[in-house]
Each structure stands twice: as structure tokens, then as C-alpha cells.
Amino acid sequence: MMIGVGEIYKVVVAVAPLYTALGLGYGSVRWWHIFTPEQCEAINLLVSYLTLPFFTFEFTIHADPFSMNYQFILADVISKLVIVSILFAWAKCSSKGSYGWSITTFSLSTLTNSLVVGVPMLNAMYGPSAQDLVVQSSIFQAIVWLVLLLFVLEFRKVKIGIPTKPGVVSNQYSHVVSIDISPSSKDTAAAATTNSNDQNTNGVADHEVLIAKPSFCSLMRIIWFKLALNPNSYASIVGITWAFISNRWHFEMPSIMEGSILVMSKAGTGMAMFSMGLFMALQEKLVASGPSLMAFGMVMKFIAGPAAMAIGAIAVGLRGDVLRIAIIQAALPQSITSFIFARDYGLHADVLSTAVIFGMLVSLPVLVAYYFLFGLMS
């Protein structure tokens, strides 16, 4: 059925309030100077540690794990495996290949801001069933893909090497001082470059420097610790656990708890977008990565990601609106968590920052264009 102006207007009406909140956040800092950078940081903490986790938790507890579309989840897995395979082959076989850039490209093309933007947009396009699929995708991303991304980033630090004094080889990776990580063609030899002088800062000669190699268990402890510091991670885990229990034994949450969660959850979307506006206003340059890398990020986000999802969806037999929803949700704006990880690990944070900002700005026309084209083809 061909999509008319009325349907497109309905989508714009559903999403426009998000951009209003984003604009207010941007203007509050850049034009009206209402908030200082310190106050912006406090607002970001409010969003990160309270409103957004409650928003995620509220959607997750109402999911029904026993009626999830596991074919849809499998399509998502296949799409990411396609991208991982291509990136691994490029990093391994090409002279220009880079494991660091492979990680960044994976983030750009696969990790999305599913709930904040995806729920209102897909609900307006295809109804409540689309909203359910977006929630399922968001839960799986938080529990599986973000955990794997964090593991790969920690493993990369181990691969580069952590210099320590003689006799201070420890399995407690979090207690070892990390070297500064700078992108290189293959992300190797960085440790050697760090120790290129005859003496390190503590007066220890190079051949006396040992490389601390934490065990797998130690690595996993660090990862789980970092996830525990992110309330959005365990909001998804606790939420899906409750969803399993409540749907299996038909428990209902007490109304006083439900109301408490809901009153905080309602602030989640608006505050998240407002915080995004603050983030944009505090950047010295909106295009921190330069125009060429910005274009690369947009291609990965809005073309490569949806194309891979189309492959996965068709491979598992998705058809009709479910296929369209799968492709459109893969083109949602960049995950803010992926930028936070990139910043924390010193891996192309400028590229992810630009992707978050411009992905948010151009996502509405791009996703409406996808919606319109699918309407023409149906």
C-alpha cells in the first residue's frame, strides 16, 4: 500500500517533540547561556543514572520474552556477523586494515539509539508491533552487543600491552596503569613506541619492562564491573529477568511500584534528547572528525548497517512489515553508549561524537525516506 502525505506527517508529528527537546538543550548553552559546563555535567548524570535507566527498565519489564520474535533477533545476529566477517577479513588481509578501525566501524554500522528515537518513530510508522520489535532489539543490544564491544575494547588494550615495573606483573588489570593508546595502521607496536626512550619515567630501562597479561577471568571481572557502573546495563538485565518471572508465573507489579517507575520513565525521552542538545552545544566543533570521516560514518550508519540487516532478514525469511521494520531500525541514530566507550578507551572518539550528533540531526529525513520508499515498493 502506497504511503501518502498523511502517514509521513504522522511520523513527523511523533518525532518532532524529540527534536524540540534537543533544540532547547542546544540553545540553553549555545545561545542563551543558561547552563555552565559543570551544570550540564550534572544534568547528564541525572539522565545517565536516573531518567534513562528508568525509561529502559519500564519498557523492558513490559516485554514478553515468551512471545519475542526470535526470527527477528536471529536476523540481527546474522547482520552483525556479516559485518564482523567483512571487517575481520579487511583487518587481516589488507595492508590498510586496522583492528581499531574495525571496532569503530562495527559501532558505526550496527549500534543504534533504539529506545529514545526508535520507539516513537517506528510506532508511528507501523504501530505497536513495531514498537515491540524495537524494544526487543534494544534489550538484545544492551545485554549482548554492548557487552561484547566492551570485551573487545578491553582485549585490545591487552593486545597492545601494559608496561609495568619488574616484579609487578598482576592479574588485577584494573590496578595496572594503562598506556596512552593512539590509532596506528595495525594497532600494534604501540607498546614499543611508548617505551622508545632508554629510560621510562620511573627510571626503568626498556628490556626491564614487563607486559602484564591479565587472565580471562580477570578481564571479565573488569568488564562486569564497568557494566555495573552503567545503570542502563543492569536496567535491561533486571528488567528482562522480571519480564521472564512475571510472564511465566503471571505476577503483577504492585501499582505503587509501577507508578513510581512510570513517573521517572516519562522524563526519560525528553531529558535524553535535552542532554543530547547540551552535548552538541558543548562541542568546539560539530564536525570533530572532519568532513571525510563524517561522510564515512553516515554511510556506515544509514547504508551499510541497513544493507547488512536486509541480508540477515531475508536469510531468515522475514517478509512484509517485519522486514521493513528490521531495515529501518538498523538505520536509527548512533548509540550514545558507543561514543562513551570510544571516549573511555581513546579509540576514535571524535568519529563517534560526530556520528552521534549528525546521526541525530539527519535521521528524521533519512528514516522518513526509507519509510516512503518501502511504501512505494509495497
List keywords for this structure.
mainly alpha, Na+/H+ antiporter like fold, 2 domains, 14 helices, globular, Membrane transport protein
Provide a quick synopsis of the model:
The protein is an all-alpha fold and 378 residues long. It has helices at 5-30, 37-61, 70-93, 99-110, 114-126, 128-160, 190-194, 216-228, 231-249, 255-282, 291-315, 320-330, 336-344, 349-377, and strands at residues 163-164, 210-211. This is Membrane transport protein.
CATH domain class of the largest domain: Mainly Alpha
**Number of strand segments:** 2
Radius of gyration: 22 Å
How many discrete domains?
Answer: 2
Output the structural class. Answer: mainly alpha
Low-confidence regions: 162-188, 190-201
* CATH topology (fold) name of the largest domain: Na+/H+ antiporter like fold
Shape: globular
Going across the biggest sheet, name each strand in turn.
1-2
What is the annotated CATH architecture of the largest domain?
Answer: Up-down Bundle
Strand content: under 5%
End-to-end CA span: 5 Å
Task: Return the string of H and E elements.
Answer: HHHHHHEHEHHHHHHH
Total number of helices: 14
Main sheet overview? 2 strands, antiparallel
Which range best describes the helical content: under 10%, 10-25%, 25-40%, 40-55%, 55-70% or over 70%? over 70%
Mean pLDDT: 83
Organism: Dioscorea alata
Protein name: Membrane transport protein
